[in-house]
Design brief:
The chain is an alpha/beta fold. Helices cover 32% and strands 27% of the residues. It has a four-stranded mixed beta sheet with strand order 24-25-1-26. Strands 2-17-19-18 form a four-stranded mixed beta sheet, with helices on one face. It is globular and about 65 Å long.
């Protein structure tokens, strides 16, 4: 077991490169299973534990994985031998459910253990199942695993009851090899949904409308390998934007798509943060006192749920009252108790956090209750007076590659240590 130790109070300055998007990579890797001819060379893959987990699952299924470097993988799915994914790696991560859609699409059957992931609330897969059944699959839950089978898959018109990133991507993957045309409505529009669609199209799929209200998939007979580069991670980029604001620093954040960051930029500017956009860069700096704002999470292009936890740390350290309303997940305020240990003044009422800014946070022993909560605690440690120890950092490693090295390069006093 490891922990992060941070001696806070340092102003962050410098440049940081953003890695490929976690939420895109964890869908693209399972989608590579669809290539029955040729290999997929996937670049700009983040070097994180969730990706390593997917590598092991792909290998267990019979795929050949060639790690070119820590950010480039070659996946050969022509050697796949199994359609059941029932390992500990499958159980421990949420994104393993994308193997259901991929295996169903290519082999017309699959058995995949029910997924795990961060404990941020009830995360049903009913919309995934609805989509698979509409395409013609029979779905059952047996011994803790999802079993899907189909004589054939046929295109259908599918209207999702709720906007779901996972269901949108999973059913889109499943429909790529279905006979006829599939129309998906009330879909998620996040950048990583578009990225997965672009990856599938690079393999020979016929998908139009990703990023809009309706996605149409015209089924093709087979998919082939391709070369592809994952988009930059908007959540990692947003985390560094917030860290720059929280430490009153000046950071040039490189390898980003500024448009993907607009909802975060808008709230930071409302607080008084200065932001300068380039073609693929964002500079974030502070030269005046910041003020509180109100935030309500929403599907893209709204304010991302994945960023409300780091944002709550920033808002706890600025003057005035702020209110964060979480509309996506019902249990995404668990980190508030950890922030309170550091002196934050926050009350939680249902899905709403009422934050009254304090003059300072103080170092304490805290834990990362989930992935994005871990990022929130790192930012808290960076601005706190004294030393902060963050435990359960395996959550952080699931989504932030080499986080301590990146912050150290910006001037932070942060290191990773073994827990005694």
């Amino acid at each position: 077991m490891e922990k992060l130790v941070i001696d806070g109070g340092k102003i962050l300055r410098g440049e940081v490169d953003i890695n490929g998007a976690k939420n895109a990579a964890v869908a693209i890797l399972p989608a590579a299973v669809l290539a029955s001819n040729g290999k997929c060379l996937i670049e700009n893959i983040p070097d994180i534990e969730d990706v390593h987990c997917l590598e092991r699952i792909l290998t267990d299924l019979g795929c050949k994985i060639n790690k070119i470097d820590r950010n480039t993988l070659e996946v050969d799915a022509t050697t796949i031998q199994r359609v059941d994914a029932c390992t500990e790696d499958v159980r421990r991560m949420r994104a393993s459910y994308y193997f259901i859609g991929a295996l169903l699409s290519r082999f017309k059957e699959a058995r995949v253990e029910l997924p795990g992931g961060c404990p941020i609330g009830v995360r049903p897969i009913d919309q995934h199942i609805k989509g698979f059944e509409a395409l013609g699959a029979k779905v059952s839950i047996e011994h803790g695993a999802v079993r899907v089978q189909a004589e054939e898959l046929k295109g259908a018109n599918i209207f999702f009851d709720v906007v779901s990133v996972g269901a949108t991507i999973n059913v889109m993957i499943a429909a790529t090899l279905a006979e006829g045309t599939t129309s998906l409505e009330n879909v998620a529009k996040e950048p990583h949904v578009v990225d997965v669609a672009n990856f599938l199209n690079s393999m020979g799929a016929d998908i139009k409308g990703a990023g809009t209200d309706i996605i149409r998939i015209k089924g093709v007979e087979s998919l082939k390998g391709c070369n592809y580069s994952v988009i930059p991670d908007q959540i990692e980029a947003s985390t560094f934007m917030i860290a720059a604001a929280a430490t009153k620093g000046n950071i040039l954040i490189k390898n980003v798509i500024p448009k993907h960051l607009e909802s975060i930029s808008a709230k930071l500017i409302e607080m008084g943060v200065k932001i300068e956009e380039g073609d693929d860069t964002v500079r974030v700096y502070v030269d005046e006192p910041l003020k509180g704002v109100n935030i309500k999470t929403a599907p893209y292009p709204g304010f991302p749920t994945d960023i409300q936890q780091p944002m709550s740390t920033l808002l706890s350290s600025v003057s005035g009252r702020s209110i964060i309303t979480e509309t996506i997940w019902e249990s995404r305020h668990k980190h508030i108790d950890e922030l309170k240990k550091m002196g934050a003044d926050i009350k939680v009422e249902g899905r709403t956090a009422i934050i009254d800014g304090v003059k300072r946070l103080t170092g304490a022993i805290v834990k990362a209750t989930d992935l994005r909560a871990g990022a929130a605690m790192v930012i808290a440690g960076l601005i706190a007076e004294g030393v902060t120890e963050i435990h359960s950092i395996e959550h952080i490693d699931r989504g932030y590659p080499h986080i301590e090295n990146k912050f150290k390069d910006l001037g932070a006093s942060i290191c990773r240590k073994e827990v005694e």
